[in-house]
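FAQ: What does the model actually see?

It sees only this:
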Amino acid sequence: MAIEDLLDMNKAWAKKIAQEQPELFTTLAQQQTPKYLWIGCSDSRVPANEIVGMLPGELFVHRNVANLVKHVDFNCQSVIQYAVDVLKVEHIIVCGHYGCGGVKVAMENTNAGISDYWLRSVKDIFLRHREELQDFHNEDACLNRMCEINVVEQVANLAHSKIVQTAWQKNQTLEIHGWIYGLNDGVIKNLNVSHRGLDDIDDIYQVEV
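And it is asked to produce this:
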């Protein structure tokens, strides 16, 4: 497919949306009012809006390799702050996916170049959970469980952030969730690790703001 084909496909898509919802682009040009922030993997097979059936403007999205939430990642933290403080989103979803290549690399000793720096925290997670993971004799099953664990850890990182905790201290409506997407069937699994307030996290991680 030539690069010019993408522009033609865009025109066809815009025309289709304009016919189905004539006011959509006019409304979006004036403001965005999403209720959800999606933090997902950069993998091209996991298009955030599409897999939850949402239109442009309904989902605020941040993506990176292995769907990580790092306190020192100012890109991710800036997205979270804008979503929480300005857009007033009510839900933040960390969504990983089974068979994640980034997680797989972190579980190995291969040289992935600069990606190794980014994925170091995932390797640390793998080390902490090695006892559980070594019980899996199937490589794919082990990887998929690690993908779930990674999401749980990123949800915890999100709950421990000053941005989220400040919102909770102000009694702002905000819930954070951990989901994982199946590439084989297109179905999202809720990992049931939602946090809805300060009572859901350990005292050691609570910050005074």
